[in-house]
Amino acid sequence: MQKKYKVLKENSTKIKYDKGNFKVYRIVALRDFGDVKAGQYGGWIAYEGNLSHEGACWVYDDAVVFGEGKILDDAKVRDRAIVTGLATVCGNSEVTGDARVQDFAVVFNGRISDHAIVANHGIICNSSVRDYAKVLNYANAYNAEISENACVFGKARLDGCTDYTMLCGGRKEYATVKIHGYAMVSEDARVFGNAEICGNAEVGGKARVYTEAFVTDNVKVYNNAKVYTTVTGATRVGGNSKVLPT
After folding, report:
1. Reduced to 3 DSSP states, what percent helix, strand and coil does the chain have, rounded to the nearest 5?
2. Could you tell me which of 220, 216, 221, 178 has the C-alpha nearest to residue 196?
3. Rounded distance between C-alpha atoms, residue 95 and residue 59, angstroms
4. In whole angstroms, what is the distance from residue 5 CA to residue 41 CA?
5. CA-CA distance, 121 to 87, in Å (whole number)?
6. How far, in Å, CA of 59 to CA of 178, rounded?
7. Closest CA to 4 of 46, 26, 37, 44
């Protein structure tokens, strides 16, 4: 395999992250690939294991990849973004701004931007996390948009692919779950289809929020509750209750 970049051992710097100081090195392209030209300087990595020589993946600007973080396929890390720990960014993903992907997190075909954080064992697939949003613990997001100050954590799952599939022109199109505002989705909760959680709403326990549902304001959905329609105000939906369209 022909190497596509070189680690410049003579061009190093130390960054402070968490409680440690880490030494990283500037990279330079050895050949053309993707939108990168031979001789173009890239960002910073700790060693070659951080950035694959295959595909069009690249670390740009002052972005940093260190620890056992891996950038694979056609993924791109830009601006001042950081990827570290045992995190993997792959597919056509982009990590930009001051975003962080760390620990055991996996981002596949995802967009992580601004000050967003994906950490612990979080999995992002065909989804975006932006602004100050966080995806933590064992939370998974498939076909979802998580933004503003929203937080998805615990073993929560956002799944726009389930319960909402359209066949358009011979291809499948999926809905997008939207979590924004100061909303929280946690524990073993599931949010499906094109449902939307916003405001100061909280969804937890083993609650389920389904296609077309809109949960906002100070609504709390918990236990084994199921929501199929709009819920607003300071409502609490718990137990085994069902909220159905009227």
Report:
1. 0, 45, 55
2. 178
3. 10
4. 9
5. 9
6. 29
7. 37
- Residue type at position 34: G
Where along the chain do its domains lie? 1-119, 144-246
**How far apart are the C-alpha atoms of 110 and 123, rounded to whole Å?**
10
- Residues 6 or more apart whose Cβ sits within 8 Å of residue 169: none
Distance CA 200, CA 142 (A): 22
What span, in angstroms and rounded, lies between the C-alpha atoms of 29 and 27?
Answer: 7
Whole-angstrom distance, CA of residue 112 vs CA of residue 144: 12
Please say whether the structural domain 144-246 has been given the CATH code 3.10.450: no
pTM of whole model > 0.85? Answer: yes
Q: Residue 221 and residue 230: Cα distance in Å, rounded?
A: 12
CATH architecture of 1-119: 3 Solenoid (2.160)
* 144-246 has the same fold as 1-119: yes
Which amino acid does the sequence have at 29? A
pLDDT tens for the chain, 246 residues: list them.
789 999 999 999 999 988 789 999 999 999 999 999 999 999 999 999 999 999 999 999 999 999 999 999 999 999 999 999 999 999 999 999 999 999 999 999 999 999 999 999 999 999 999 999 999 999 999 999 999 999 999 999 999 876 555 544 555 667 899 999 999 999 999 999 889 999 999 999 999 999 889 999 999 999 999 999 999 999 999 999 999 886
Q: In whole angstroms, what is the distance from residue 186 CA to residue 207 CA?
A: 10
